[in-house]
Design brief:
Layout lengths: L3 H13 L21 E5 L2 E4 L4 E4 L14 H11 L10 H13 L5 E5 L2 H16 L3 E5 L17 H4 L10 H4 L2 E4 L4 H10 L4 E6 L15 H11 L3 E5 L11 H6 L5 E4 L10 E5 L1 H4 L18 H16 L2 H24 L4 E5 L2 E5 L8 H5 L3 H13 L2 E2 L8 E2 L6 H18 L1
Helix pairs in contact: 2-11, 3-11, 7-8, 12-15, 14-15
The protein binds pyridoxal-5'-phosphate.
Pyridoxal-5'-phosphate binds next to helix 4.
């Protein structure tokens, strides 16, 4: 495999862009080697600047749930762009987008559009604080809620990948109000709540974690959080930036039958355009400006190009529920195939999966939180990653990220992935 053009581009990129990338995990630092520069993508395939093709398990970290360059989305963007790319004034399309989301997620009464998942989580936290008049909140180790100051405490994703323990530039006065405990540890949550009576505004959680690999909520964990929040007047925020419109049309809330008070969205909601959103019960959402005094704004929020892309994709997901069954079946098939080749290799491994989120950990212990994810043999993951890449399979370049399947993947693609896994394990073990 030639990667000469990618290597040259990376040398050049580092002269003008910090680390050569605009988001840290893309730099491949944790798996070693140089990043691949992508030229284009179609369906389930990425094509790099040297003409290599890869089967894609990142799907732009989720948005490409129906595959890259999905024709209805591309066509809608092209048509809309001719009408101008932004107005800074309201449009009918924003109402249609809000109505569509509300029709897919029953417990969302009001929804505000923003331009990223980071903004969605940051704004939801501010709203929870403004609504309750309390400052502290609980987040879970290894969960990632974007890069707003308050959340960069024991965060997952790139923060975990680069092993950044404390982030310089975040004042203690900010991080002191961030309380953390282990994912799936309901007892620890109860203790924190008891230790800080009437001080906790919110509990924010990835209902299925995707930023320390894929980690499932244990039976009773989310139900327990729901109960604690109701009892103590704490706002329960589900960060569905990854799981929203992916695990089901109604996201993790629908799939797991639990209602949060506020929900944040990103990734799938914009079909690859920069979009996020937060929404929930009217009682809470009506505190957002201009209805209330919790200020939140955005020059490009509800941008017409971003809206038409998201609207077109979500309409497809709403009208064609078979997509979720197909994605589940494909991911189950991949899971089974990987299980066989990993078991045959005799290397310790654990595969976690729900719906179209899946990840492999080189550990023979159950991976249920950040500690157990970090205890896996992540050096072996690096070798596995590169062995797969060489065989045309593009996995997330970190053991602390979920893989995302897209529905353009064929069973032949999955068979290729399983066969590449078998060869890769033979090569690295
Ligand atoms: C990606 C992600 C975010 C941040 O979204 P950005 O669009 O990258 O700002 C927040 N929460 C979760 C769960 C995510 O996976």
């Amino acid at each position: 495999m030639h990667i000469k053009n990618s290597e040259q581009l990376f040398q050049r990129a580092q002269k003008s862009i910090p680390g050569g990338v605009n988001s840290p995990v893309r730099a491949f630092k944790s798996v070693g080697g140089n990043p691949i520069f992508i030229q284009k993508a179609k369906g389930a395939y990425l094509y790099d600047e040297d003409g290599n093709a890869y089967i894609d398990y990142i799907a732009s970290w989720g948005p490409m749930i129906l595959g890259h360059a999905y024709e209805p989305v591309i066509k809608a963007i092209q048509e809309k762009a001719a009408f101008s790319t932004s107005f800074g004034a309201p449009t009918q399309l924003e109402i249609e987008m809000a109505e569509l989301i509300i029709s897919m997620v029953p417990n969302v009464d009001l929804i505000r559009m923003v331009s990223s998942g980071t903004e969605a989580c940051m704004s939801a936290l501010r709203l929870a604080r403004g609504y309750t008049g309390k400052n502290k909140f609980i987040k879970f180790e290894g969960c990632y809620h974007g890069h707003a100051d308050a959340f960069l405490v024991k965060a997952g994703s790139g923060v975990a990948t680069f092993n950044i323990q404390t982030v310089p530039g975040i004042p203690a006065a900010v991080s002191d109000d961030t309380l953390t405990c282990a994912y799936n540890d309901l007892n620890a949550v109860e203790k924190l709540v008891a230790a800080h009576p009437n001080e906790i505004a919110a509990i924010i959680v990835e209902p299925v974690a995707g930023n320390m690999g894929c980690i499932l909520p244990e039976q009773g964990f989310l139900e327990g959080l729901r109960k604690i929040c109701t009892q103590h007047n704490i706002v329960l925020i589900f960060d569905e930036v990854m799981t929203g419109f992916r695990l089901a049309a109604g996201g993790a809330q629908q799939r797991l039958s639990i209602d949060a008070d506020l929900i944040t969205y990103g990734k799938v909601i914009g079909a690859g355009m920069p979009v996020g959103a937060f929404g929930g019960k009217k009682e809470i959402m009506q505190h957002i400006a201009p209805l209330g005094n919790v200020y939140q704004a955005g020059t490009l929020s509800g941008n017409p190009i971003a809206m038409i892309a998201g609207f077109t994709l979500l309409t497809e997901l709403k009208n064609n529920p078979a997509i979720y069954k197909e994605l589940d079946d494909k991911t189950t098939y991949l899971h089974k195939g990987l299980d066989e080749v990993f078991a045959a290799s005799k290397t310790p491994y654990t595969i976690n999966r729900l719906g179209s989120m899946i990840s492999v950990h080189f550990s023979n212990k159950p991976v249920t939180n950040f500690e157990t994810a970090a205890a896996a043999n992540n050096d072996l993951f690096k070798k596995y990653f590169h062995a797969m890449l060489k065989r045309g399979i593009y996995l997330p370049p970190s053991p602390f990220e979920s893989w995302f399947l897209n529905n353009a993947l064929t069973y032949a693609d999955l068979d290729k992935t399983i066969a590449a896994s078998k060869e890769s394990l033979q090569e690295i073990l």
